[in-house]
Design brief:
339 residues, seven-stranded mixed sheet, alpha/beta, three-stranded antiparallel sheet, single chain, globular
């Protein structure tokens, strides 16, 4: 009954994204064929929105932090998800217009969409020009270790990621029988804990939890015991902690390293689900033909499903791979080509 009630509530949400779902539905079916685990797309995509009581989005994201701003030549998403982002708005306005007293939407109109995004990113704000994603494919696989096929039920997954995409990947692999260990820093816990407790429990149901002082060197020891690592960090940040994807993969056959970033492992721009979706062009249209947000941080669950499928496929063929996922590219892959 609960599933039926959820399906009824997410009906309008599903209708809004239905034209974009065939590639994702195909991946979900392949994941099920590989693991035996069904993927309920309405739940994966919209459970959080329902638990949080979100309304369908428009020019502002469902969660309320990301805004589509009209620029001189198009549209840009600016995501003010953290207190520091809000505090940086006057500086962003000053960079765009030379005056801190102007409102951000007005300042954006006199700049190009690319300029708004670039200046926001310069201040550490997640921002993206609409439909600007280019470069890496959704998943890039690089073989850095030897192959060895393992039973998924014998695998230990260390999940260093946070928020939604990485944890959803870990949840799906955990349902396939792997042991999942959720690892957090003592100084930087998962920001999703500040959201819906029920959604956080759903993502991490059945997983072990470990809180570490990353500066102590303990993280490298935990990673050394893993078969699969899921992370969403800059590579250099992990290297400073003594954790190297290349060394991890070379040390034992059959391992898999999953790296989730906004724009690819070699791009330092930050991203969250809503602005990454905009970068990929995964948006709807209003009555005037202008972009509006679709779903709830849609690039997050989309990337989580991509990551789970890519990991399951890699493991089935022996692993030994570094899987680099770009959230913006995952979103872009669902957008039909123009007619």
């Amino acid at each position: 009954m609960e599933n039926d009630a959820l399906a009824a509530r997410v009906g309008p949400w599903m209708e809004s994204v239905e034209p974009y779902l065939p590639p994702l539905a195909s991946l979900a079916k392949e994941f099920t064929a590989l693991t035996g685990v069904p993927v309920d797309l309405p739940t994966a995509l919209f459970l959080r929105a329902q638990l949080m009581g979100h309304a369908l989005p428009g020019r502002t994201s469902a969660g309320g932090s990301c805004h589509l701003l009209e620029a001189a030549d198009g549209w840009t998403a600016v995501n003010l998800a953290r207190p520091d982002d809000l505090a940086a708005v006057p500086a962003l306005v000053a960079l765009l217009s030379g005056s801190e007293g102007e409102l951000l939407p007005e300042a954006a109109k006199r700049s190009t969409a690319a300029e708004v995004a670039a200046r926001a990113q310069l201040l550490g704000i997640a921002a993206a020009e609409h439909a600007s994603a280019s470069g890496p494919p959704p998943v890039r696989a690089e073989r850095l270790g030897e192959r060895h096929v393992r039973d998924p039920r014998t695998l230990r997954i260390v999940d260093l990621s946070a928020l939604w995409a990485g944890p959803l990947c870990a949840r799906l692999l955990g349902l396939a029988g792997a042991q999942v260990v959720k690892v957090e820093s003592t100084t930087r816990p998962d920001g999703a804990r500040a959201g819906s407790p029920a959604f956080y429990r759903w993502l991490h149901d059945g997983h072990d939890s470990l809180v570490l002082d990353f500066a102590s060197g303990a993280l490298a020891e935990v990673v050394a015991g893993a078969d699969v690592v899921i992370e969403a960090s800059r590579a250099r940040a992990l290297r400073r902690l003594g954790v190297h994807a290349e060394e991890f993969l070379a040390a034992r056959p059959g391992r898999v390293w999953v790296s989730i970033t906004g724009y690819g492992r070699d791009d330092d721009r930050i991203a969250f689900g809503d602005d990454a979706a905009v970068a990929g062009g995964l948006t709807g249209l209003d009555a005037h033909g202008d972009p509006v947000f679709l779903g709830d941080a849609l690039a997050d669950p989309v990337t989580g499903i991509y990551a789970a499928h890519a990991t399951a496929h890699s493991l089935a063929t022996g692993g030994g791979e570094l899987l680099s996922l770009s959230m913006s590219a995952c979103a872009a892959s669902l957008v039909p080509p123009p007619c």
